[in-house]
């Protein structure tokens, strides 16, 4: 999708369709030129109340746009909602406008930014929210479709209409930020949605290396032989049953024109299981196809570091992505095997299906070498997180109150929700092994699976500030949501980009 920016009078904009965003309370409609009388009439008839999710097509008098689309942005009494609510409502409204335009279909939609959002939050933020929402709402995964019906095609072109030249710079800057975040979120979605036969660890590593080169980031790809040299026995163990060998990828971003490392980097770690059968502790076949999404963490941290590199973030960053396919075979690891991670710790692999924490153990141990300011991992780690939160939020765990508080704050600003869950001392107790340093599943009592998994990770994240996001339930919604169509969600890209931008504030 191409987003253009234009300044000029709304009523002289000749285009197939223009969308206007209206709140529920419109005591006196601000001047909408040739459209004013038409809109007032519709409102008098109460055919359009401005509620969220409401859209209405109108056919205005000749001279301007061929069609007018009214989209409701919900309640806006008094001073209007706070920034987080306003952003969400505006973005939902944009999503509904996009779906309405796609359905007709129209290949080119113009959006008027004028309205209460701009009045309260300015052109820069409004344009950022709009551009981001356009990318998120317009996304479809069509690479494997031989033909696509017109009505299912994404919009080809959108124009953001500003009032006059005075605000062009703000609109441009805002739209650029929103576009970069939206575009990279869609890359994460593409990677998530790609089936595992086409996205092996080797392929995912090659894509990461390609993106790193485009953005001039340093990239290290460790193949099997290099993994042996590094001593990443846990990652090798998970990958040893597959015909597609494991990889470990480290991307490093250094801000331009900055003396090297005054501060250590923020390190992002993403679970990259390209397919999770469970291994010898094999899963049941129900919904097994969804296990192609088990590399969502890696896809998201890759997209986030790329977005931040394109934005020339002032923060040094690293993305670590352990990648493997968890398969049962004659060469697969067995339940009961003991593996050694690259920091020398031994793990009793009591269940080969608890493989995410194994590959993350090696990655978290590797992270120490950067002396990081903070480490954040994202992983589709436990099915248990569905029981706690359903698909409403990612589970948040960590060893540093300030880091957790910052993640919560940034999450609120993006709408990618997080919810903190406990790491009580008992959870560490439950992971003790009789014969190795730690077990990968608890031996006693049942329940609390997400906290147990997080406690396991925490023992490899000692010595730096660390947070873990269990994204198993938010990585791919089962049905369409306003800004997230069914399939890979790209959950975490917006949050990580916001978090890194807020960190240096
Ligand atoms: N990738 C799964 C977690 C998962 C399950 C994600 C369902 C999305 C939907 C992970 O590797 C896994 O298998 N976890 C086990 C852990 C258990 C063996 C301790 C689980 O959740 O059952
Ligand atoms: Mn598993
Ligand atoms: Zn898994």
Supply database-style keywords.
36% helix; Aminopeptidase; binds zinc ion; alpha/beta; 2 domains; 9-stranded mixed beta sheet; single chain; binds manganese (II) ion; 505 residues; binds ligand BES; 6-stranded mixed beta sheet; Leucine Aminopeptidase, subunit E, domain 1
Task: Describe the protein.
The protein folds into two domains: 2-163, Leucine Aminopeptidase, subunit E, domain 1, CATH 3.40.220.10; 184-503, Zn peptidases (Aminopeptidase). It has 505 residues and is of the alpha/beta class. The strands form three sheets. Strands 7, 8, 9, 10, 11, 14, 15, 16 and 18 form a nine-stranded mixed β-sheet that branches. It has a six-stranded mixed β-sheet with strand order 1-6-5-2-4-3, covered by helices on one side. It has a three-stranded mixed β-sheet with strand order 12-13-17. 36% of the residues lie in helices and 19% in strands. The model has no long low-confidence stretch (mean pLDDT 96). Bound molecules: ligand BES, manganese (II) ion and zinc ion. Zinc ion binds at residues 273, 276, 294, 355-356.
């Amino acid at each position: 999708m191409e987003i253009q920016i234009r300044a000029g009078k709304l009523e002289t904009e000749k285009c197939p369709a223009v969308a206007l965003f209206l709140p529920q309370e419109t005591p006196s409609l601000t001047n909408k030129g040739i459209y004013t009388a038409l809109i007032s009439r519709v409102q008098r008839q109460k055919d359009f109340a401005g509620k969220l999710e409401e859209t209405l097509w109108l056919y205005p008098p000749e001279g301007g746009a061929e069609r007018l689309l009214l989209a409701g942005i919900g309640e806006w009494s008094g001073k209007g909602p706070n920034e987080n609510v306003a952003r969400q409502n505006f973005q939902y409204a944009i999503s509904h406008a996009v779906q309405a335009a796609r359905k007709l279909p129209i290949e080119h939609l113009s959006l008027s930014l004028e309205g209460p959002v701009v009045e309260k939050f300015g052109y820069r933020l409004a344009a950022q929210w709009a551009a981001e929402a356009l990318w998120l709402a317009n996304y479809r995964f069509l690479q494997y479709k031989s033909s696509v019906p017109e009505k299912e095609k994404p919009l080809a072109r959108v124009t953001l209409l500003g009032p006059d030249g005075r605000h062009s710079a703000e609109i441009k800057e805002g739209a650029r930020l929103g576009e970069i975040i939206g575009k990279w979120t869609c890359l994460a979605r593409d990677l998530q949605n790609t089936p595992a036969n086409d996205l092996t660890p080797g392929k995912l590593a090659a894509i990461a290396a390609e993106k790193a080169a485009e953005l001039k980031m340093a990239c290290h790809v460790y193949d099997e032989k290099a993994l042996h040299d590094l001593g990443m026995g846990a990652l090798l163990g998970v990958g040893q049953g597959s015909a597609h060998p494991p990889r470990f990828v480290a991307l490093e971003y250094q801000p331009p024109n900055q003396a090297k490392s005054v501060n250590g980097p923020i390190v992002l770690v993403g679970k990259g299981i390209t397919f999770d059968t469970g291994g010898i502790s094999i899963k049941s076949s129900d919904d097994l196809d969804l296990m192609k999404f088990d590399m969502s963490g890696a896809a998201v941290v890759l997209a986030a570091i790329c977005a931040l590199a394109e934005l020339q973030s002032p923060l040094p960053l690293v993305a670590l992505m352990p990648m493997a396919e968890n398969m049962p075979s004659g060469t697969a690891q067995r339940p009961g095997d003991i593996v050694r991670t690259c920091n020398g710790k031994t793990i009793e692999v009591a269940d080969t299906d608890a493989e995410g924490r194994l590959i993350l153990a090696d990655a978290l141990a590797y992270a120490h070498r950067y002396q990081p300011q903070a480490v954040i991992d994202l992983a589709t780690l436990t099915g248990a997180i569905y029981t706690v939160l359903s698909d409403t939020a990612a589970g948040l765990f960590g060893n540093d109150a300030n880091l957790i508080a910052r993640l919560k704050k940034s999450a609120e600003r993006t709408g990618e929700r997080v919810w903190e869950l406990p790491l009580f001392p008992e959870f560490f107790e439950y992971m003790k092994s009789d014969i190795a340093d730690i077990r990968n599943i608890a031996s006693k009592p049942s329940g609390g699976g997400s906290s147990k998994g997080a406690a396991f990770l925490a023992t490899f994240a000692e010595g730096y500030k660390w947070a873990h996001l269990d994204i198993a339930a938010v990585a791919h919604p089962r049905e369409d949501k306003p800004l997230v169509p069914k399939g890979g969600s790209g959950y975490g890209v917006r949050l990580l980009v916001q978090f890194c931008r807020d960190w240096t504030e």
